[in-house]
Design brief:
By secondary structure, the protein is of the alpha+beta class. The protein has helices spanning 2-5, 14-35, 41-60, 69-89, 93-110, 117-127, 130-135, 138-159, 194-202, 212-228, 287-293, and strands at residues 241-243, 253-259, 268-273, 282-286, 296-300, 305-307. The protein is built from eleven helices and six strands. The longest helix is centred in the N-terminal third of the chain and has 22 residues, at 14-35. Residues 175-189 have low confidence and may be disordered.
């Protein structure tokens, strides 16, 4: 049920949530103040509703593809133009509203400026009332374009002091290849070629709200963490026990029962499988390969295997 209704894992710290909420407050306060100079308070509330959705994107997910300057500006301006045009051509409000939103979605796709609040901007151009109609295409400039520029500037100023969430995303400072300790080398992290990332995103056959850079960063961080969990070759000692999984009886335990450090043998080890489906069997491998397999050195307390401290 949890997966069906879409409840996702929340790893966002409280600091991030507070910054996002504060940014949204400042952005909408500025926009409402400006918008009321051009249209009535009632119509302003309808127009600014789309900017409220933009605020969520710019301050909660400032590095998301949908939050970047071109989707923000292009999505609102293009949708506003379409909304005004459709309202002039189609007198029936219901039909005009539906067409404005539908056409805006299609055009944003082709112009690569998908910004969900743009649909609300197109809708507002049709249903907001006579004072908005009276503006004609001036509505595109004031308040729509002006509002988009104001909230973009607010996002830049609010997020800039925090280098990990600077807006736009190109300004963020993220140590993509920072090592996770002496045991983790840059060369071990692996690099996914651009063509492979592009293929992976295209293969989803629907819009993915993640950039190639974010996908690469997630992979690298996961790889980094995975490598940091392995032992180094110097940690592997004769007669000791090692586990691949977790302690408490899970995983496979191996014991190093012999070793050779001759140059011709490539530092080979002979190990015996202590637990698991292949228990009591022996095999030979290099010290390097064994270290990549091992997660922890363990000891047996008579009941279960525990990580050695």
């Amino acid at each position: 049920m949890r997966n069906f209704i879409g409840i996702q894992l929340d790893t966002t710290p409280h600091k991030e949530k507070i910054i996002s909420a504060l940014g949204g407050f400042i952005g909408i306060f500025c926009i409402l103040t400006i918008t009321q100079q051009f249209i009535t308070e009632t119509s302003a509330a309808l127009v600014v509703a789309s900017m409220g959705a933009s605020a969520v994107l710019l301050f909660a997910v400032p590095h998301g593809p949908l939050s970047q300057p071109w989707p923000l500006i292009g999505g609102h301006v293009v949708s506003a133009c379409i909304g005004v045009s459709i309202r002039m051509l189609i007198p029936d409000m219901v039909l005009a509203a539906a067409m404005a939103v539908g056409i805006s979605i299609g055009v944003m796709y082709y112009l690569r400026c998908i910004h969900p609040p743009g649909g609300a901007t197109a809708l507002a151009a049709v249903v907001s009332g006579e004072d908005v109609y009276a503006l004609g295409y001036l509505f595109v400039l004031t308040p729509v374009l002006l509002n988009a520029l104001v909230i973009m500037l607010t996002a830049f100023l609010v997020n800039y002091p925090f280098k990990w969430r600077r807006y736009p995303a190109v300004l963020s400072v993220e140590p993509v290849l920072e090592t996770a300790g002496a045991k983790c080398k840059h060369k071990d992290l692996g690099v996914i070629p651009h063509r492979d990332l592009e293929y992976a995103l295209k293969s989803m056959k629907s819009f993915a709200d993640i950039s190639e850079e974010e996908l690469a960063l997630i992979y690298q961080k996961a790889r980094q963490h995975n490598l940091a969990m392995h032992l180094s070759r110097e940690d592997i000692k004769l007669g000791c026990y090692y586990i691949h999984g977790q302690s408490g009886g899970e995983g496979v335990v191996r014991r190093v029962i012999d070793e050779s450090s001759d140059a011709d043998s490539q530092d080979l080890l002979i190990y015996k499988v202590i637990t698991g489906p292949e228990r009591q069997t022996t095999a030979t491998t290099t010290r390097e390969e064994f270290a990549r397999w091992a997660r922890h050195e363990v000891v047996f307390d008579g009941e279960q295997w525990n990580i050695k401290t």
